[in-house]
Design a protein that fits this description.
Elements (H helix, E strand, L loop, with lengths): L9 H17 L9 E4 L6 E4 L15 E4 L4 E3 L8 H10 L5 E5 L2 H8 L9 H7 L3 E3 L7 H10 L5 E4 L3 E6 L2 H24 L8 H11 L2
Parallel strand pairs: 6-7
Antiparallel strand pairs: 1-2, 1-5, 2-3, 3-4, 5-8, 7-8
């Protein structure tokens, strides 16, 4: 039987992590020292993650750290992100996930602080995001936060961390990046609408069902 060959090498994966980080930094969704990204080859129990305390806008592949699902460092010289525990928990719970993006989307986070849920107000929200859950506050980098994320990530593509930021997951980096970007776009549209009216038009429920059937979401 032929051996399965991964779509990308680990070196290509590391390059893509850095490119994704720079794009999100340029969009203002990741700050100089805030936010983190990880990715793994399909089926792997080890993943590459961005380091802690390093300027996020200019990360290079050699800055990344490889860890296993227990958080043990396998390769790399820098300290892995303090959020490594919840990245590991996601990979442990979701075999379909190969990339995790944690960004600090300001408008999405602000809506959550105001007690406003992300609603299906655009087709992108309905197709890409599905149901966006809000994770209760837990101190960053703790096992408490990792446990909560592990519980809430079941069946979800996007999470909002109360007082903290957002998480997007995907089968690859592009998908996870698209989740956090779409989340902020939808939150921005919702925020603008709320400035002028309280009863924001949503996509009708019957059309939501049609979307689910058409797109398999």
């Amino acid at each position: 039987m032929e051996e399965f060959l991964p779509l990308v090498s680990e070196e290509e994966l590391k390059e893509e992590i850095c490119k994704t980080m720079r794009r999100l930094f340029d969009r203002g969704l990741i700050s100089a020292l805030g936010g983190n990204i990880s990715a793994r080859l399909p089926g792997s129990t080890e993943f590459w993650i961005t380091p802690s305390g390093v300027f996020k806008g200019e990360l290079e592949p050699e800055d990344l750290v490889k860890v296993d699902l227990s958080g043990r460092v396998i390769e790399g010289f820098l300290r892995p992100s303090i959020e490594t525990p919840f990245h590991a928990k996601i990979y442990e719970r979701r075999t379909d996930v190969n990339a995790v993006v944690h960004s600090h989307n300001p408008i999405t986070t602000g809506l959550a602080l105001a007690g406003i849920d992300i609603q299906p107000v655009t087709i992108e929200a309905a197709v890409v995001l599905r149901k966006v859950k809000v994770v209760p506050w837990a101190f960053p980098g703790t096992e408490v936060l990792a446990r909560l994320v592990g519980e809430y990530i079941e069946g979800a593509r996007a999470l909002v961390l109360m007082n903290h930021g957002v998480i997007g997951v995907g089968s690859n980096l592009l998908e996870a990046e698209a989740i956090v970007e779409t989340l902020e776009e939808v939150a921005t549209a919702q925020f603008v609408a709320l400035l002028f009216r309280k009863d924001i038009p949503r996509i009708p429920e019957e059309d939501m069902e049609l979307i689910k059937r058409l797109y398999g979401v």
